[in-house]
Amino acid sequence: MSTQNVRGRRRSPDPVAEVRTARVVSAQDRPRDPHREVRRRKGALRQVADFAAASGVGQKAGVALAATGLALTVALPATGPVMATSESGQAVSAMSAGSQPAVSAAATAKIDFSRAAVATKADPDGKLKQLLSAQSAGSIQRASSLGTLGSPLDSLVTASPFGYRISPLTGGAGDFHRGQDFVAQCGTQVHAAAAGKVTFVGWHPYGGGNRVVVDHGNGLETTYNHLSSFTVQMGQTVNRGDVVALSGTTGASTGCHLHFEVQVNGEVVDPMGWL
Q1: How many helices (H) and strands (E) does the chain have?
Q2: CA angle, 203 as apex, 199 and 209 as ends, to 5°?
């Protein structure tokens, strides 16, 4: 049976429930996180930096945090793995780098890192010999022969070209010029155009005056005409550039110059196709 108090509320006849007291749990009773204190000392930014370094995404994390206004410093070596900094301040590699072999040298060793010079030297005699050994001189094309003979004078200035011309002796047309005339004062040194053997030294009865002929092999010969004197003898071997004579105006000549001929199998050809 219930009763009513003075304020009109009804009071339950049941006994009053016992009030529960809250249990106080000390910090010592809680399970301890071994890394909690380390994380607390590092702080939020430091934890992010360590995670970025260990996961290999330091650079991407740095860009992302920079975009949000946060500052993040992660050591990124130029040629090594991503590096993070430990609590002691020492650099720790996030990925183990391969060991590099040690390079040693004697204390007295001289080490030069300068770049070696690369140079090539043309070998026109070798090219000429190769051409003549592979085929007859008569079958060699101008594109292959051009430049294989050296200059018979230190300076080449054309006085009269190879081929038909007006004769300087008679003034008549239709004169066939068998060689190339070059300007040269009397006594100018005349050089062998290539290595070979001297096969003629003497007077040329058909207008060449004093003449030297050098055989270069396989049907190729060069002749030097209107010379004032000789410096070689019959049968002598000469090299490219050797002085074989001095220029002059002997024979059918109107003045000092060098008449230079190139003969292939006994037939004259344009010397400019070989010089």
Answers
A1: 5, 16
A2: 115
